[in-house]
Amino acid sequence: MTPLNIAHQRLQNQYIAGTKFAQPSEAVAWLGAVQAQDYLGALWAVGIRSQNTVEADVEKALADRTIIRTWPMRRTLHFVAAEDIRWMLELLTPRMVAGLARQLHKHFGLDEATFGRSKDLFIRALQGGKQLSRTAMYEVLEAGGVFTGEMRGMHILSQLAQDGIICFGTREGKQQTFTLLDEWAPTAKRMERDAALAELARRYFTSHGPATSQDFIWWSGLTVADAQAALEMAKPQLVKEVIEGQTYWLASLQPAAKENSPKAYLLPPYDEYTVAYKDRSAALNPLYAKQSGNGIFSPTIVIDGQVVGTWKRTIKKDALIITPSLFEKLSKANVRALAEAAGRYGKFLGLSVVLL
Prior knowledge:
This protein is α+β, with helices and mostly antiparallel strands.
């Protein structure tokens, strides 16, 4: 296996290539978590891995409570399958919360009493299935004597989400809302710690492999010791590949997809194809790391498993305008593949496409 093989295996194991999921929630559950601070980009990250899915289908999955948006790992917003949200929060967030407690107290005056007061205020305001916008949540706090200025409100929302009290609800227009997690996902399962560690490792290496233990540590935010313990418990379900002296883990080697012509993908920013790995060199030439925001911060164009450029979208009336920024000139076959990829994204949004 070569680095290029790694990229192709990841495309297949993440089901960017050869999509099989009928429901958006199935794609999210397969990956374990989908980074989602860029909300519209995250909708496409799920859509590209789901069959015949349009943007409204992914939003419906969020409204139907099969997908939850919250802060389950690395203090970063993700989509998580509703059934997984409890055990993932309980496994991954306590260390993050504890590690930040001193800074929040020192710089923002946020202590346990303030978070406890905020929790009580939110429970009273949201009970009965209510959903409130961020502004309304801040108003609840202010009315209860909790100051929300100077970023305090945002830190309160984030921590109480990590504590499993609140999560995002549905959108009201372009505004996100918050609701009580217990009411939004009442059937979410819990796990004993070792079982949760093993499941997280199994889920990651199955869906993201081939990947290294360092990749898993980066993605999960676990300590080195916990990540190693998780991998040890998951190893009976994984296979090992040593590539150029580096050890990779995955569930199984997938046969290479037979393509008669090149296949291109327009991936959103923070897509799992790049953000889920500490070492992204299998898909991203280090020479282009800066141009692509290290493969994370800019939407990327992927052809033959490689990041070959970035792109941006502009929506005017009923048309989607895709503007690519390529690292090198594409062959005619790759240009056609790029046009097909743009068409797939246009179909997801229900818009005609203009590729500049």
